[in-house]
Amino acid sequence: MGPRATIGAVMDVGPSLDAQSQSASRQCALVDMVGRQVEVEHPLTVLTGTNPSPTMRTGGERLARSRFCSRTSLAVLLITWTWAAGCATRLPVVTTAAYPSYPVPVVPPALADNPAVAEHERAWLYLQSGDLEAAERGFASALRISLEFHPSDAGLGFVELSRGASAQAVAWFDDALSRAPTYVPALVGRGEALLTVGRVSEAVASFEAAVAADPSLTPLRRRVEDLRFTDLMAQVTRARAARAAGRDDDARAAYERLIAASPDSGFLYIELADIEQREGHGEAALRRLEQAIELDRGAVTAWRMMATLYLAADDLDRGEQALLRAESIEPTRETSRLLADIEIRRREASRPPEYRRIEASEAVTRGELAALVGIRFQALMSERAGARTTIITDARDYWGYGWVIAVSQAGVMEADTNYRFQPDREVTRAELADVLIRVRQLAGGADTAPSVTRPSFSDLAPSHLRYAAASEAVALGMLVPLERNTFQPGRGVLGTEAVEAVERLIRLLDENP
C-alpha cells in the first residue's frame, strides 16, 4: 500500500480548504446579487414581482414603503455582513519561510488548469508558515481532487521531511516521480531525505538527475561534486581500514566499487595492487599498476611497486626499467641501491651453478668461501691481485679456481706449506672469522678495532690462537655467539651463515668507509 492510502484518513479530519473556499465564493456571489437588486428595484418587486406606478401610491403606501424599506435594508445589511465573513479563505501570513531551502513544488503547465492547483498552493503556504498539519490536509485534499496531481505528492514528501520521517518522505517523492520522472522538486527533496539517513550515493544520484533535468541548478551541481568527493573519501577510509585489519576480501570488494564509481582515481588502483601483491597475485597486481600508470605517468609509487614485482619474478630487465622511471621522477638512495643490486644479480646469474648453490650448502667448503668472497669483494680483490706470488697445486681443475687465486693473492686465504689450497675441505667458524677480519683489514687498513669491546667465550680463551679474530668478528656483529656463550671454533658453517656473515661485513664497510 503506497503513501496515497493515507489520504482518506487525512481528509476525514474536516472539510477541505477547497470546499470551504467554493462555499464562500457562492455566498459572496449571492450577497452581491441581492445587494445589486435591492439597490435598483422596488421593495415590492423583491417580494411580489410587481412594480406599482408612483401615481398609484397613497400616503399609507408611502409610509408602509418607508417602514418596509428600512426593515429590508437592515435585513440586507445583516445578511451581507454575515455572508461576507466567509468571502475570503483565511490564508497564513508568511513573513519568514519556515523551510527556505525547500524547492517550491511548482505546478507544471500541463496541470495549470487542474482544480487542485489552488488547494496545493495554499497548502504550500501553510507548510512555509510552519503549520505542518494544515499543510498535510491541504496537499491530501489536492490529491483527493486529482489523484494524478503529482506536485502535491512532492508537497507531502516535504511535510514528512520536515517531521524527520525520511522513509515516508522518500516514499512520497517516489510517488511523484513515478508520474513525472524528471520533476525537479521531487528529485531534490528525495535527495535531501536520503542524505538524512546516510544514503549518500543514492542522494547524489537523485541530485544528478535533478541537474540533468534543469542544467541551471549550478549550486546543486557544485554540491553534488562536493558530496561525491566526501562520499568517495569515506569509502576509501573504510576500504583502508579493512586492508589494515587484514580483511582483504572486504577491502578488495570496496576498492572495486570505488574504481567503478571513480575510474580516473589512480591511487585506488595502487592500493588495490598492494592487496593483490600481499596475497601473492603478482599478475593481477601488475595489471592494476599498469592502469594507475596509464592515468598518471608520474605515479612514482606505482613504478616502485612494479619494479618490486618484476624483481621478485627475476625479470631483471623490466625491474630495472621501472626503477629507472622511478629514479627519474624522484631519486632516492633506496632506488639507487636496488639498481646496484640488479647489477649484482646479473653477475650472479652469469656465475657457475655451483656458486648459486652455496647458500643452500649444509657445509661450506674452502673453495666455496673463496668464490663467495672473491665475487662479493671483486674490486677489492682486483686491487690486491699482484700483492704476492701464489702457487697452488691442487685447485687447477676446481670450478672456482680463478677466485681461489684471487683471494690467495690478496692474502685473505692461503695455501698450506705444500701449496695445497684444499678447496673441498669444510670451513670452520674459526676460519670464517679469520677471513672476515682479513677482508675488513684489507678494505680499511686497520689491524684491529680498538673502540670495540671484545667479548669472552666459555669455550675460547683469550690466549687461543683464534680468539682475536673470533672476538672481533662477534664484537662487530659479523658473527654471533652460540648457545651458552660458546663460539665453537671447530664447528662447520652452513651456506646461509656464510652468506649472511659476508652481507654483514659489506654493510659494515658501507657504514664505515
How would you explain this protein's 3D organization?
- By secondary structure, this protein is mainly α.
- The chain folds into four domains: 48 residues; 108 residues, Tetratricopeptide repeat domain (Serine Threonine Protein Phosphatase 5, Tetratricopeptide repeat, Alpha Horseshoe), CATH 1.25.40; 86 residues, Alpha Horseshoe (Serine Threonine Protein Phosphatase 5, Tetratricopeptide repeat); 150 residues, no CATH class.
- Helices cover 64% and strands 0% of the residues.
- It contains 24 helices and no strands.
- It is rod-shaped.
- The chain starts with 6 loop residues before the first helix and ends with a helix.
- About 15% of the residues have low confidence.
Please outline what is shown here.
The chain is mostly helical and about 525 residues long.
Keywords:
24 helices, Serine Threonine Protein Phosphatase 5, Tetratricopeptide repeat, 0% strand, 513 residues, mainly alpha, 4 domains
Number of strands: 0
> Average pLDDT, to the nearest integer?
83
Largest pleated sheet: none
**Percent range for helical residues?**
55-70%
Low-confidence stretches: 11-88
Count of the domains: 4
The proportion of residues in beta strands is: under 5%
Question: Would you list the SSEs in sequence order as H and E?
Answer: HHHHHHHHHHHHHHHHHHHHHHHH
Tally of helical runs: 24
Secondary structural class: mainly alpha
Radius of gyration: 49 Å
Shape descriptor:
rod-shaped
Cα end-to-end separation = 84 Å
